[in-house]
Design brief:
Layout: E1 13-15, H1 29-40, E2 45-48, H2 50-56, E3 65-68, H3 72-78, E4 82-85, E5 91-96, E6 99-105, E7 117-119, E8 125-128, H4 134-137, E9 148-151, E10 157-159, H5 163-169, E11 171-172, H6 178-184, H7 187-199, E12 202-203, H8 205-214, H9 223-234, H10 239-248, H11 251-255, H12 257-265, H13 267-285, H14 292-314, H15 319-334, H16 342-353, H17 364-368, H18 375-387, H19 393-402, H20 407-413
Helix pairs in contact: 6-8, 7-9, 7-10, 13-14, 14-15, 14-16, 15-16, 18-19
Length: about 450
C-alpha cells in the first residue's frame, strides 16, 4: 500500500527493456559515463527521478540524477572531476564542462535514530546522511512518479511503489503517509503543483487533503530555498497554470501575502498579473530569456501603489519617490517569506519608480528617460499596463514610436528647441594692482 507510511518488504516490479520506452539515446553521454564507470567498478548504478519519469511520458529529459550504493567518498575516488557538496544531504557532483551529474548514495529510512539525522521542532528534516539500500532509498523519494530506477546493468526499470501505474493514471501521489511526508518537507506541496502543471497530471485527493492541512508550514522553510522554488514554478513555461493552482490550494498566499490580498480585492490587478504570466509563458515557448525581476515587479505593483499613496498623504514627495520607498518597505517584509536577491530587488524598484515618468513627453528630462539603464524593462512594464487598459494607449504608442526615431526626430517629438543659444561671455575679473605706497 503506497500510503501506509511503512516500507514494504517485497522486491521491486522489474520492467524489462522491451516493455518500456526509456532509451539511452535520451540520456546524456556524461550521465552514461558515470553510470558505466560505477557499474564496472562493482557498484549498483541507476538513473532515478525526473529523468526517468520524463522519458516515460515522452518528454526530453534535461537533468540526470544517479543513485548508487557507493558512498560519496567512493564516488569521488572514481572521478577526478568530482566534488562533494551539501550538509543536509551529502552529494557528489561530477562535472563535465558545464554539465553536472548529481550522484546520491542510497539512503536509509527517515525513522533511523542516529547522529546524522536531525529534525527541527516542526518535524522537518534538516540533516540526513544515513546510508542504506535501494529498498530503503525508495521510501525517501517524495512522489511515486519520481521513484523509478533505471538500471544500467540491464536497462530495466525498477518500480517499488507503483510509479509506472500512477504515471499511466496521470496522478501525483506521495509515497508513504501524506501528513508525515509534508511535515518532513513542506516544499513538497510546491513540488506537487509544479509536477502537476508540467506533466498535465492531477494531484491525488489524499495529497490535496494533506496540503490544505499543512499549508501554513511553508513559513518554516528557509526563505532562500523558497526563492529557488519560485524560479522553478514560474519560469518553466506554465506560469499562469501554476499561479491558478497555487492560489487554489492557498500556497500563493504563503509565498506572497501582500500580492494575494490585492488580488482578492482588485480585479484589474488580477488581469494585469495574468497578462504578465501569459507574456512570460510566451517568451519561454519562443526560447526568449525571462527575468524574475519583471514578474516580481508585477506581483508588487498594486501593493506598492497602495503604500505609496499613503506615504504621499503623510509627507510631501514625488510619485516616483513614494513608489521607490513603498517598494523598499514591502520588499523588506517580503524577504521573511521568499528571500529575493539584491540583484533582482534593485532593478525591480527602479523599474516601478520610473512608471510616473512615462506620463511626461516634453522636454529634455522626458527625452533622457530613453537613456536610463532600466528604460527597456520599465517600458515593457508600461506597455503591459496599457495592454490591459491601465495606462493611456496614446502615451504608450508615443514611447513605442519615439524609440525608432533619429536624434533630430526625437528632439522634435519632445519639443526641444535645437537653436543654438548665444553664449554669454564670462566677465574676466580684473586683477587689482596692490596699492603700494610711494616713499616720501
Amino acid at each position: 500500500m503506497k500510503n501506509s507510511g511503512k516500507p514494504e518488504s517485497k522486491g521491486p516490479k522489474i520492467i524489462p527493456r522491451a516493455a518500456h520506452n526509456v532509451s539511452r539515446d535520451e540520456v546524456s553521454k556524461s550521465a552514461l559515463k558515470v553510470l558505466y564507470r560505477l557499474h564496472k567498478s562493482g557498484y549498483q548504478a541507476f538513473l532515478v527521478g525526473g529523468c526517468v519519469r520524463d522519458a516515460l511520458v515522452g518528454l526530453h529529459p534535461k537533468d540526470f540524477d544517479v543513485a548508487t550504493n557507493a558512498t560519496p567518498e567512493e564516488v569521488r575516488a572514481l572521478f577526478g572531476n568530482c566534488r562533494l557538496i551539501g550538509r543536509r544531504f551529502r552529494l557528489a557532483h561530477v562535472r563535465f564542462g558545464r554539465e553536472i551529474i548529481e550522484v546520491a548514495t542510497f539512503r536509509a529510512a527517515a525513522n533511523h535514530v542516529d547522529d546524522d539525522v536531525a529534525h527541527d521542532h516542526e518535524g522537518r528534516i534538516i540533516r540526513d546522511n544515513v546510508y542504506g539500500s535501494i529498498e530503503e532509498d525508495v521510501w525517501r523519494r517524495d512522489f511515486t512518479c519520481n521513484a523509478l530506477y533505471y538500471n544500467i546493468a540491464d536497462f530495466s526499470i525498477w518500480d517499488y511503489v507503483g510509479g509506472v501505474e500512477d504515471i499511466e493514471r496521470k496522478h501525483i501521489v506521495l509515497i508513504g503517509d501524506a501528513d508525515k511526508r509534508l511535515q518532513e518537507d513542506p516544499v513538497r506541496m510546491l513540488r506537487a503543483v509544479r509536477f502537476a502543471t508540467k506533466l498535465g497530471f492531477t494531484i491525488d485527493s489524499t495529497v490535496v487533503k494533506s496540503m490544505h492541512k499543512h499549508v501554513g508550514r511553508l513559513v518554516n522553510v528557509p526563505a532562500a530555498r523558497l526563492f529557488d522554488e519560485f524560479l522553478k514554478l514560474f519560469q518553466a513555461g506554465r506560469a499562469e497554470q501554476t499561479f491558478d493552482m497555487l492560489r487554489e490550494y492557498g500556497l500563493f498566499a504563503q509565498l506572497f501575502p501582500a500580492t494575494d490580498q490585492e488580488l482578492n480585492e482588485d480585479a484589474a490587478f488580477d488581469a494585469f498579473v495574468r497578462a504578465a504570466l501569459q507574456n512570460t509563458d510566451c517568451r519561454v515557448a519562443e526560447g526568449k530569456s525571462v527575468t524574475p525581476m519583471f514578474l516580481l515587479g508585477v506581483f508588487f505593483w498594486a501593493p506598492t501603489r497602495r503604500v505609496a499613496a499613503i506615504r504621499r498623504a503623510e509627507e510631501k514627495m514625488s510619485e516616483s519617490q513614494s513608489l521607490s520607498l513603498a517598494s523598499y518597505e514591502l520588499l523588506a517584509e517580503q524577504q521573511k517569506r521568499v528571500s529575493i536577491p539584491r540583484r533582482f530587488t534593485v532593478p525591480m524598484r527602479e523599474m516601478i519608480a520610473l512608471q510616473p515618468r512615462f506620463t511626461a513627453t516634453r522636454g529634455k528630462r522626458a527625452m533622457n528617460l530613453l537613456e536610463h539603464r532600466r528604460f527597456r524593462a520599465a517600458y515593457d512594464f508600461m506597455a503591459l499596463l496599457a495592454e490591459v487598459g491601465q495606462f493611456d494607449s496614446e502615451l504608450a504608442s508615443f514611447w513605442t514610436e519615439v524609440q525608432k526615431q533619429s536624434s533630430d526626430e526625437r528632439a522634435d517629438s519632445f519639443q526641444i528647441d535645437r537653436k543654438p543659444r548665444a553664449r554669454r561671455r564670462s566677465r574676466r575679473r580684473r586683477k587689482r594692482k596692490p596699492n603700494v605706497s610711494q616713499p616720501s
